[in-house]
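To: structure desk
From: M.T.
Subject: fold request, one chain
Message: Could you run this one when you get a chance? Sequence is below, nothing fancy, just the single chain.
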Amino acid sequence: MCQVFAGQDPTRYESITRRLRLNGQSTSIRLERAFWEIIDDIATTEGTTTPAFVSKLHSEVLEQRGEPENFTSLLRCACLIHMDARAAARSAHALAAE
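Reply: Done. Structure tokens follow.
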């Protein structure tokens, strides 16, 4: 079983740092490539750029809960929510096709 996880391409978990603006402040965010790919996909789905999506998400979190303690963890969890929703939609589509 672990071979599925251990045997993955190392570029998937390579750390990538991107510089962007959050609420007008220049910052950098470091995430694994796989998470950046999901965030890029979310942004495209939302019809916006990745920096605009991340900035909007940060603004909404500030508005609802205040400054997040660990924004990169929040981004990773957002990716999991996105992937869960995508899987649920595929399952619903498959059931409807039966």
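Reply (cont.): Residues 71-97 form the longest helix (27 residues). Let me know if you need anything else for the meeting.
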